[in-house]
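Example 3.2
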Amino acid sequence: MDIEANGHDTPIIVKVGEPVTIKVNVDAGDDEGVTGEYWLGKSGTYGSQWFNGTKWVPKYILPIPWKSQPIAPEEFSFKWVPRAPGVQMFQIVIDEKVDGRLNTRFVDHVVITVVKNNIEPTSLK
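Structure, written as tokens:
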């Protein structure tokens, strides 16, 4: 499993208002066909939220997986546009215990630092 921001799975820096493409690639491997719960979360300067399948909800609300299905190779992506400077982490978790609770099994994350428009982004290498 891999999660990327603008094609990178290492930390990136972007400017306020610069669209970021978040892409998740699931490689099921030996777990193909095993039913799993998919959890997508984000946390950082902008608060913490879970994706519930249709929208982002605050993390203080009981999290629910956005889908439960047999684990299979798949790829999906979405756009995120930062509105203010700060740091945001997106994470994907797939767990094989289908019980509506977050049980980490497979997890990956990517970190995005957002800077003001008048600051030139540089590499974090």
